Amino acid sequence: MKLSSYAKDLLREIWNNKSRFLSIFAIIALGTGFFAGLKSTCPDMKLTAQAYFVERNLMDFQLKSTMGFTDDDIIAIKNLGYVKDVQPSYSVDAFLKTDSNLDVIIRAYSIDTANIANADYISKPILMEGRLPNAQNECVIENDDLGKSRYQVGQKISLFFDSSQGDINDTLKSAEFTIVGIVRSPNYITFEKGKSSIGSGRISSVMYIPKQTFKYEVYTDVFLTLKDSDKYAFYDSSYTDLIDKYTTELESFGKDRAKIRYAEIKNDANDQLSSAENKINSGWSAYYNEKSAYDSSIQAALDQIQKAQQTLDANQKLYDDGLSAYNQGKADAEKSEQDLITAQAALDVQKTQLSQLTAAYNFISASSLPDTYTIPDEIISAVNSGSFPASFKFFINSSQPISTDDLASEVLNLSLANKQSFFYIVNSSAYYVSLTQDKQNIILALENLYSLDLTADTKTEFMSKVSAYISTSNVQITSAQQSIDDGYTQLAAAKQLLADKKTELDNAKAQLDAGYASLEQNKNTLNAQIAAATKQFADAYAQLMSGQNKLDSSKEKLNELKQPKWYIFDRTDNPGYTGYVDDSERVDRITVVFPIFFIIVAALVCLTTMTRMVEEQRGKIGTYRSLGYSRFKVISIYLTYAALASFLGGIIGLSIGFKLFPIVIFNAYRILYILPNLIAPFRLDYALYCTLASVLVTTAASYIACRKELQISPASLLRPKAPKAGKRIVLEKIDFIWNRLGFIRKVTLRNMFRYKKRLFMTIIGIAGCTALILAGFGLQHSITSIVQKQYEDIYIYDFMGYYNDDVSAKGLTEIKNTINENGIITNYMFIQQKAIDVSYQSAKRNVYMMIADNSADVPKYIKLQNRVTKEPITLADEGCVITEKAAKLLNIKVGDELTVSLGNNSTFTTPVTGITENYTLNYIYMTKNAYIKATGEQPKYNAFIGLMTDDNKSDELSAQMLENKNILYMAYSKDSGGKFRDVVSNLNYIVLVIIVSAGLLAFIVLYNLISINVNERVREIATIKVLGFFDREVSSYIYKENTLSSLIGIGLGLLAGIPLEKFIIASAEIDAVMFAPGVNFMSFVYAGVLTLLFNITVNFFVHFRLKKIDMVESLKSVE
Fold first, then answer.
1. Where are the alpha helices (DSSP H) in 398-458?
2. What whole-number distance in Å separates Cα of residue 414 and Cα of residue 29?
3. DSSP letters along 282-331, please?
4. Going by C-beta distance under 8 Å and a sequence separation of 6 or more, which residues neighbour residue 694?
5. What pLDDT is attached to residue 411?
6. Cα 1042 from Cα 1011, distance rounded (Å)
7. What is the pLDDT of residue 74?
8. Those residues with Cβ within 8 angstroms of residue 554's Cβ, 6 or more apart along the chain or in another chain
9. Which long-range contacts (CB under 8 A, 24 or more apart) does 311-318 make?
10. How far apart are CA 229 and CA 247, in angstroms?
């Protein structure tokens, strides 16, 4: 196709001024891409989540009940006209122990693998790896709340309950599972999985097990979707209104179903209790009957044993008496026998003596004694000494032999003692030995005879008496022997009688022993029976008492039984759901001002560029006019030039911006959120707006630049424009300064003030970019400093524990004991924290009310102070202290009366006594006395705050505190600050994008303006080159002007950045958060240094362009 001269000239214009074209192209591309990219981030994030929720059929409501859901409940829910699908489910919170022995809290949901492929399956999880479970000991699991791949397919895990939960085998058929898959649930779009009432209270992960693994009789959860919900996006107010509407209806429906369920449970319980009571009563009746029969039988057995004992005791006495008599008789017999033996022995001695006496008598009678004998000297000596009678001396001292008769006679006359002495002396002396046998026998016989101590004068008389003695002794011995023999006869009869008695006694003893053994055996048997029966009766009694106690307890519980309560949860209750919407809208708020400021700066630069281009082409415009081209035809060239640059720049910028900026920001937020890849469509509406705006801005700038020139006649346009008349600048009139400046500095100052438009455009451009960078850094500081200010400076407390405000006095005492016995908590204070509505005039906001139990202790836990003066604020016993952001939203000040609505049409007014520094959420603080004075009621404390010995022991503290079932939940300032830090840290990526984009804009603006400056002064630069200036000096000649303009622009930009930062903060803030106002010193430093670095970089590139200026050609350019 053949192009017209006009079209060719247009193309040449673009080619010959390609630097300007590319400059406009780049500025528009950056501006539109930045604006469209940031503005599309919010809708792209929402669109991605919406598509994800629709694809996975995310529930609209999740229902829970204190008594579960029956099949009748499920049918009733399905029959609701606004309900689309209903999906009952089971769930349980338990502790999980892995192979690494790490205990965590996990929530197990049931999964219906048979129906999960259906399109109407609610909150369908995505299988990321592995397969779905089939057996009751298989599961799929989500990664934990740290977002790390802790779990792998094939890993073995086990669940267990703590002591307060009972036995897990009563809940699940299997407590050990094999992980067969890794899933991702649309219910959890963050790594936070919610809260639990066990352990530390923080759920680490969620797992899904086959529904047949649960042993529950009723469902614990019900998920449902609404028929009309798919008509609206989840972030639309229409969807919110829909949810609010059906939340109210479900609450009403839940109350009706709760009444039915309550009646069913109570009736069933009454029937069961009645049956149990009948069983218990029957048990008591049987117990007492059996106990009575048992007691009677035992008493009869005891009576029999007592009677047998009495009989045995009587027989024992008889036996003992008989044994005593036997022993006495035996002793008497033994004594008699001993007496007989003694008597016999004595008689035998007598017999022996009598026999010896008789033998001696007969011997002496038959023998003749020798006539003489010689008495030994020792006998004589003894006699002479007086041992024997004097008459005896005759026989001893006589030298004549003594006859035996005389000896016998004399001996007979001796006393018994002397006789014995005599015979002793005789027998023991050698004299006796020297005697003949006959004499010895005579002496022995005489010794026996004389032992009778018979007195006789003559031998004959003596012998006669001996004979009579022998006769008498024989008679006595015979008689004694007879008596002894009779005694032995009697003794033998007595012994026989004793033997018979002993046999009787032994038989009686055997019978007694057998009786006692039998009695003892019977006693042992009876005792064993009594012990066994006693144990049986004790066990039966214990069982009956246990049953009775359970029955009484069940009755008491039934009397105290409250109606079941349905809890209605919607998507906003899912962890991260609301936060995701807030984060996306927060991005949108932050991006409201920056792109607009970008467009303003870009428009000014385009105006400058096109103005310079038109001024440079005055001759060409005059030529066109002289050739007969209309004003419109001429202006169309420059409009088309600008429009084409803007259009192409806009298309390229939009193409990049729609993909780059949303993805960068979204990927930053994926640190917190679990979502699929961002859906970033090319948004035609944004593209049209941005393209149209950029084309309008550049063409308007071109039109403004051309209109003035087209008012001039063609002849005047063909002549070079007359230079501006030289003027003295203000500094020239100040000799003290001007005379001390060098040549280059003077030229620099003259040029700056000579070309005021160019100077102002440069300053405005640099100031705008600096202001943008400062606002970016200031915003970053305002956001990130919230964490330290709120969670370290203001919130001094380490934790907050929550419990029901209707806890009993006993329960409150248990809570206090739990806190006091804990070794981690150092100090604590009870508070009431409640969400309320406050209003002032026409403004109304939702805030939290915190009532302190002891106002004097509040500074230990929360720092109430004026943000500007840091002056402490004291809670008084009248009025309230309100946080700064709430005061701003209500437009209220100290001394104004605040209206507080507690719900249930209960309101009161209280004066504002202070406005305290605060950054997250909105509060009013009151003392107990102030609340009582305002309402006339005592506060209902439902929480406590306190300090810890070590804030790293939060899990340990939660585990100990949540063992008390009155305590619902533990929250920690460290965790809250960490979560908020995670949220705001993602805003740093947005701020970084803003800073980088502002930096690029500053670079383009500087380069474009400096390029215009160089183009305008080509002849001037060529002239100073001709004058002998070196390249370095030529560059310095230009640099000084640029640098000075940049410094002025930086200074103005830093000043302009302060209100810009405030405006951006005011636009980006949400009601629940107040960004830290003010710009810190380092933000000024960063913004100024960065802009100056951009200026130096641009100067570096311009230096090479200045070196390429041809002195001769440049001097001829006017021709």
1. 404-412, 416-428, 430-434, 437-450
2. 179
3. HHHHHHHHHHHHHHHHHHHHHHHHHHHHHHHHHHHHHHHHHHHHHHHHHH
4. 28, 31, 32, 599, 602, 646, 647, 649, 650
5. 55
6. 11
7. 92
8. 269, 273, 276
9. 311/515, 312/512, 312/515, 312/516, 312/519, 315/508, 315/511, 315/512, 315/515, 316/512, 318/508
10. 13
Q: Which residues pair with 200 in a beta bridge?
A: none
Q: Which two three-digit tokens encode residue 1062?
A: 């405030």
Total length of the chain? 1119
User: How many whole angstroms separate alpha carbon 83 and alpha carbon 79?
Assistant: 8
Q: Which tokens is 490 given?
A: 């009697």
Helix (H) or strand (E) holding 397: helix 390-397
User: Which residue type occupies 119?
Assistant: A
Domain range summary for the chain, segments of one domain joined by +:
47-255, 345-491, 598-722, 724-753, 755-784+952-1119, 825-948
How far apart, in whole angstroms, are the C-alpha atoms of residue 11 and residue 203?
67
Residue type, 58: L
Q: For residue 170, give Cα distances in angstroms to 164, 216, 377, 870.
A: 13, 9, 129, 58
133: confidence class by pLDDT, cuts 50, 70, 90: very high
SS3 percent helix, strand, coil of the chain, rounded to 5, is 65, 15, 25
Distance from C-alpha of 814 to C-alpha of 966, rounded to nearest angstrom: 8
Give the model's pLDDT for residue 30: 81
Residue entry with tokens 């600096």: 770
Give the bridge partners for 946, in sequence order. 799, 828
Please report which helix (H) or strand (E) contains residue 48, including its range. helix 18-55
Structure tokens belonging to residue 642: 């600008």
Residue 200 has pLDDT above 80, yes or no: no
**pLDDT tens across 430-453, in order?**
444 444 455 555 555 555 555 555
What token pair was written down for 905? 């049409």
From the DSSP assignment, how many helices (H) and strands (E) are in the chain?
30, 20
Chain-centre distance for alpha carbon 439: 131
Q: How far, in Å, CA of 832 to CA of 851, rounded?
A: 5
- Record the tokens describing residue 1024, joined without a space: 């100073």
All residues at 6 or more sequence positions from 1049 whose CB lies less than 8 Å from its CB, including other chains: 762, 763, 764, 765, 766, 767, 770, 1091
Amino acid of residue 1042: N
Q: How far apart are CA 448 and CA 466, in angstroms?
A: 10
The token pair at 161 is: 């309950």
Q: Is the C-alpha dihedral spanning 795, 799, 805, 808 positive or negative?
A: negative
Secondary structure of 459-493 as H, E, C letters: HHHHHHHHHHHHHHHHHHHHHHHHHHHHHHHHHHH
Q: Which residues does 117 contact at the CB level (< 8 Å), separation at least 6?
A: none
Average pLDDT (129-146) is 85
Closest to 441 measured CA to CA, from 351, 370, 348, 353? 370
Q: In the numeric block, which tokens belong to residue 866?
A: 């004026």
C-beta of residue 796 within 8 angstroms of C-beta of residue 865 = no
* Spatial contact of 981 and 787, defined as CB atoms under 8 Å apart: yes
pLDDT of residue 1018 exceeding 60: yes
Spatial separation of the C-alpha atoms in residues 98 and 719, rounded to whole Å: 90
Alpha helices in 711-754 (DSSP H): 714-718, 735-738, 743-754
Structure tokens at 902: 């507690």
List the end-to-end C-alpha distance of the chain, in Å, as a whole number: 35
**How far apart are the C-alpha atoms of 666 and 654, rounded to whole Å?**
17
Whole-angstrom distance, CA of residue 1089 vs CA of residue 1082: 10
Residues 802 and 197: beta-carbon distance below 8 Å: no
Lowest mean per-residue pLDDT among 133-137, 389-393, 1065-1069: 389-393
Query: Which pLDDT tens digit goes with each residue over 70-97?
Result: 999 999 999 998 999 999 999 998 888 7
pLDDT at 400 over 50: no
Closest C-alpha to 621, from 744, 705, 690 = 705
